[in-house]
Amino acid sequence: MNEVKKIDYADDGQFCSGHVACAGCAEALAMRVILNSVGQNAVGVVSPSCSAVILGGHPLSSARIPFLHGTLESAAASASGIKRALRAQGKDDTTVLCFAGDGGTYDIGLQALSSAAERNEDILYVCFDNEGYMNTGGQKSSSTPSGAVTGSTPLGKATQKKNLIEILAAHRIPYIATVSPSHLNDMAAKMDKAKAIRGTKVIIVLIPCLPGWGVADHAAVSTARLAVESGVFPLLEIEDGLRTRMHPEHKIRPIDAYLAQQKRYRHLSEADRAALQAEVDANWARLSAQAAL
Amino acid sequence: MTQRRNLQGNEACALGAIRAGCRFFAGYPITPSSEVAEAMARELPRVGGTFIQMEDEIASMGAVVGASMGGVKAMTATSGPGFSLKQENLGYACGAEVPCVIVNVMRGGPSTGMPTRPSQGDIMQTRWGTHGDHSIIVLAPASVAEAYSETIRAVNLSETLRVPVVVLLDEVVGHLVETVDLDAIPAGAEVWRKFATGPREGFEPYAVTDDLVPPMPRPGDGYRSHTTGLTHGPSGFPTQVPDQARAAIQRLSDKLDLHREAIESYRTRAIEDAEVLIVAIGITARAAQAAVTDLRAQGVRAGLFRPVTLWPFPEQALRDTVENSGARAVIVPEMNQGQMVLEVERLLAGRAEVHRLNRIDGEVIAPAQIARKAIEVLA
């Protein structure tokens, strides 16, 4: 069992106030921890997403490091180019950071991410996963979980969320981690760890989308916490695609409270909820077995 | 009994396609066209159709090509950057003659541009976006009712001529809500592609017919066919024999030339004695229409020529309109740096002065701007 280390991350203002995230959005909170962890010796690439909107454009960008706002499918490819260019100039110590949403990671950006991972590009890729195309009004992505209603799955999504973590693990990249805005110390510790590793690092942050999931304005962080505590979104680390570490003590409740906070699940029947619970339990059991190896 | 309802341009495209028999939609979210996909996600299952949200724009177009080859009328929708990604498969559909409809709701560009602002920057991309010599049909509605009726026409033209048809909206027409009575809009009889009949043995899927549109083998009918993006002869198999290659590429444009009368469509207003003629499409044509009314009220003889079929451009109709009205000046207002004006200049070749009126700031062109320009060029 791995203990969460209590740390104080330095907030030296890498994420500025006045950003344009929706009021109450937890993505801004996660971004603050991540940008402060990355620090000044970094450049970023961001694909069209809520992150791109929150970061904003010059001269009103909320980040203090330069960001290339690229195309939706190319974040990992553009980051690869930047990293190689910096290396060619002897600036190999500069962190190359990617911000992308789940659409730009699980769907249209997967080819570029998979190829960058296969080349083990020295980039730090952060996916802000709000389980849908929330920036175009809330359509499903392949990260949308089963049962959830979106603009393009009006009766609820019939298939499961794509298991990106296992896809990435199969690439045997040095580091994969999941983090949540409800567990900021854990997030900061994993960021510090990732920063010190050479090669492709991918961090997936679960971001409850207030309008997209139908969550009350005050409930973003508590919804994220319920996702962790119900085992829907386990906080884990996978090193070299093989060694899994997680927190067995995190899963302390059934998924009911998590589902109840969201309108996208309110059409579910008792049987639907039971099926979702079974899906979550099976996933948790599988991960636990993996972590015990 | 009439059913008047408030409807958005994007939704009207979806409903028009379904009315014309479209039963397959594959798409990817992109502003300002996502409502087409959302409407299809709601409506297609009700009529036994299929909606798939794909992983990207390329796959959406690939799925549409596959569905159409599979024997179903198929459509997708997108906006500028997504339309760029679709270009390879769009070229495939031109070359392999796969009937399909692509709705492109134009936003500001280049690149990500201004996703929520209107533009008419894809006038040339719709015509020449994919590589190589090819022919394509582009229809440009200017109202919600027309978004409905022109999407019906798009499905029908794509079926009868085996050619991709683009329904080109600007963001304003796409998001415009107007009161329409869909039942009062004549949809005509449902049109299907010509299916192959006759002996299976020796079947040539791209044999040249009188109408230059080869019948399609219906999946399951037992015809052996080979479909490819490589330049192919009547057998469907690739060829690089110069005479066969030339004939194959030439037939694609000859096909549209032969059926020009069915393809072309345009509207005019107050052209008979116009001394200044405005040529515009989409929401800019609506502004131009208001400008013509205002100008006429001031005693200025202004007229409007509005291509509904943008490509192939209604060439002869524009020449005749200028000739017969005796217009000495033509104004081409458009929300880009000047794209349609190039075609107008080429066609008129000095028959009248051609003036540009452009806006690339994400704002629409106002009637007063057009009226001012008209007075200025006549002075």
Summarize the structure in short.
By secondary structure, chain A is of the alpha/beta class. Chain A has helices spanning 26-38, 50-55, 75-88, 103-107, 110-118, 164-169, 184-195, 210-213, 220-229, 256-260, 270-292, and strands spanning 42-46, 67-69, 95-101, 124-129, 175-179, 201-206, 236-239, 243-246. Chain A is built from eleven helices and eight strands.
* CATH top level assignment of chain A: Alpha Beta
Mind telling me which CATH architecture of the largest domain in chain B this is?
Answer: 3-Layer(aba) Sandwich
Give, in order, the helices and strands of chain B: EHEHEHEHHEEHEHEHEHHEEHEEHEHEH
| Uncertain segments of chain A | none
User: Could you name the ranges of chain B where pLDDT drops below 50 across 5 or more consecutive residues?
Assistant: none
Main sheet attributes: strand count, strand direction, barrel closure of chain B: 8 strands, mixed
Distance between the termini of chain B: 51 Å
The name CATH uses for the topology of chain A is: Rossmann fold
What helical percentage do the residues of chain A reach? 25-40%
The order of strands across the largest sheet of chain A is 2-1-3-4-6-5-7-8
By oligomeric state, this entry counts as: heterodimer
End-to-end gap of chain A: 12 Å
What are the secondary-structure elements of chain A, in order, as H or E? HEHEHEHHEHEHEHHEEHH
Count up the helices of chain B.
14
Q: What is the CATH architecture term of chain A? A: 3-Layer(aba) Sandwich
